[in-house]
Design a protein that fits this description.
The complex is a heterodimer.
Chain A lengths: L3 E3 L4 E4 L4 E7 L4 E9 L5 E7 L4 E3 L2 E6 L4 E6 L8 E9 L6 E3 L3 E6 L1
Parallel strand pairs in A: 2-11
Antiparallel strand pairs in A: 1-3, 3-8, 4-5, 4-9, 6-7, 7-8, 9-10, 9-11
Chain B lengths: L4 E3 L2 E4 L5 E6 L6 E7 L6 E7 L2 E5 L6 E5 L5 E5 L8 E8 L10 E2 L3 E5 L1
Parallel strand pairs in B: 2-11
Antiparallel strand pairs in B: 1-3, 3-8, 4-5, 4-9, 5-6, 7-8, 9-10, 9-11
The chains are: A mainly beta, B mainly beta.
Chain lengths: 111, 115
Amino acid sequence: RKEVEQDPGPFNVPEGATVAFNCTYSNSASQSFFWYRQDCRKEPKLLMSVYSSGNEDGRFTAQLNRASQYISLLIRDSKLSDSATYLCVVKSDPGRRALTFGSGTRLQVQP
Amino acid sequence: ETGVTQSPTHLIKTRGQQVTLRCSSQSGHNTVSWYQQALGQGPQFIFQYYREEENGRGNFPPRFSGLQFPNYSSELNVNALELDDSALYLCASSGGGSGSSGEQFFGPGTRLTVL
């Protein structure tokens, strides 16, 4: 079983739609959680951190459920520029020095 | 732009050869992590260097090795290349020994093709 699992998609949605991505992680000792965005043939970039209380950044809302070991990302009012792969990322402390990435969920927003 | 640079951008090698990839970290960052990203997969952690010492290693064989220099730039060396080593190699820099905030800043990557 992979440490971080995501639905690979693709999710094809029209502009203006709301779309949600889910992610599960297996290491209950994981301490930090993130969503990264990766455009085609580019490097990953941090989209947002995910906090236990949930957090919002403009059209993006991230939620964490530690009991279920589940992370989500909600994108409202999708834009064409949101088309990308969204990577669920976990950092397990103490001891682990690395980010553990899911395989990513591909989003295609269509006009 | 993150300020993290990598060279070369693309590389073609044949099986059995050796390769060295280079990374310059963002100014002020003392930690460099290397990741391998195969097509359709997320990045997989290879190892991390903090102040010139290896600071954690993923599930990669010893033929993957690295260095960090006093200016915090880093090299990834891969010996005895195999076809499965074909991937995008990403370097990420961060400010603390464990990347305390979790955010790592990625370079554009080196795309390695092994024939």
